[in-house]
Amino acid sequence: MSARRFLPALIAALGLTLATGAQSQAPAPEASVFGLWRNPKSSVEVDIRPCGANACGTIVWANAEAKEDARKAGTKELIGLQVFRDLRQDQSGAWRGRVFAPDMGMTFSGTARLVGAQNLRAKGCVLAGIICKSQLWTRVG
């Protein structure tokens, strides 16, 4: 798969791939990465929770198109699938770990950073961080 098709597919898959940025605002002190998040296409919702000392995110809702895309790539059941794995918070407040893209059947490095209390900037990278893409997820509820 070419890099031109690969990156949009990665981000569209879960959008979840997580990030820093000069435009990011510091989150409110009470804000937390934990909770329910919706990707920009409104096709997937992920619940991010503590997993021991780390955090993980599990798909709790997906539309029919997301489910079918995942099935085509070999992921039989999308609901209940852990897609954010081993997220660890660094000194800057970003969460770094692994992201599984079920519509591709692949795992990538990723980061997540709060942008205010209601948005999560997600960034995913391939090729040792050389090619990256980010998107803004929205808190649900």
How would you characterize this protein structure?
The structure is a single chain. The protein is mainly beta and 141 residues long. The chain has a single domain (3-139), classed as Lipocalin (Beta Barrel). 15% of the residues lie in helices and 45% in strands. The chain has an eight-stranded antiparallel β-barrel with strand order 1-2-3-4-5-6-7-8. A hairpin with a 4-residue loop joins β5 (95-101) and β6 (106-115). It is globular and about 40 Å long.
Mean of pLDDT: 81
Shape: globular
Oligomer: single chain
CATH structural fold name: Lipocalin
Main attributes?
141 residues, mainly beta, Lipocalin, eight-stranded antiparallel barrel, 2 helices, globular
Fold topology:
Elements: H1 3-14, E1 35-38, E2 44-51, E3 54-62, H2 64-72, E4 82-89, E5 95-101, E6 106-115, E7 119-126, E8 131-139
Explain briefly what this protein structure is.
The protein is mostly beta strands. The chain is built from two helices and eight strands, in the order H-E-E-E-H-E-E-E-E-E. Strands 1-2-3-4-5-6-7-8 form an eight-stranded antiparallel beta barrel.
